[in-house]
Amino acid sequence: MTDIRISDLPVEAGFGDYVQLLKPRVMSLVVFTALVGLLVAPVPVHPFVAIVSILFIALGAGASGALNMWWDADIDGLMQRTRNRPVPSGRVQPGEALGVGMALSGISIVMLALTANFVAAGLLAFTIFFYAVVYSMWLKRLTPQNIVIGGAAGAFPPMIGWAVATGGVSVESALMFAIVFMWTPPHFWALALFMKTDYSDAQVPMLTVTHGRKSTRTHILVYTILLAPVGIAAAFTSIGGPFTLAAAILLNGWFLIGAWRIWQRDEVQAEADKYAVEKAVFRFSLYYLFLHFAAFLVEAALRPYGYGGW
Amino acid sequence: MSFQPEHEIHKRRFGRNLGIGLLLALFVGIVFGLTVVKVLAIGEKRGFDGVVRQEVTPQVKQP
Q: Which chain A residues touch B18 with a CB distance below 8 Å?
């Protein structure tokens, strides 16, 4: 008879490993943008309904993260940035990640429909489908435009938040969607420039791998130029005002300067200072999104005092 | 080999079990809270079938 020792068994997952499946850092962005979408909408929502709606939007985003980790476990194991994720490290079995993803998808969609409305739940269902199927399964390994189209999945949360309050979509929610959508490519390509070997090791057709680094720098500049009018246009809608306009001009100007500096550099210069500019622009892009959405929130908060809005 | 009354799996999985237990409790709280909020949002209804009846509803005095 053979004894089975604990050390022979696969490493057992703790509760935190299942939380990691839900990509909590991405979730924090989802929570924030969805909350802004909900709070700036012209229809008030009961605070409890608002909190629960945001919770289920975040849970839905987490579910799509778990499905992504299930599907991408093979390439995650090849990249340094993702090697320690629960599935490639062996702590969580792929089937468990699939089960968690599917179960949480169902729970979050049904509960959002019951909490808020069917439009918000439909948008959440589409977001999960888009991220798990269109991005992870289809485009990520097929085209270097993966980030561009896949970015739509991350752009839906403010639209869902708006739909929770209003039960529909509008120019304002479409522009909030467009800000995140246009912001995603320069944000990720700046990361891809200094995470040099990862994507090529995993054979993911990142723009840096397929079209070269000079082309990626040009793409960053072009998308940042396209982002600016979207951000400024949002400031002229009912969710904007003088404060948002000033913030949009400053933030987009700053981002454009960063993208211009990235475009002007070549690899020799970047290697010399260890990608200092690329890293700085990547860091700034995180602040950009946070501050842009915070500006909408400030505008909405100023409105009752007669200061916000046009 | 016989199982101890306190099997090691109970200790090993304590964190997981506690986490799931707390999540389930939170879920119950959310459903209960939503029920309260949604029912209160409907407003005051008189009668067993939710139909407003003159005889049990205070008359609104016309100015």
A: 15
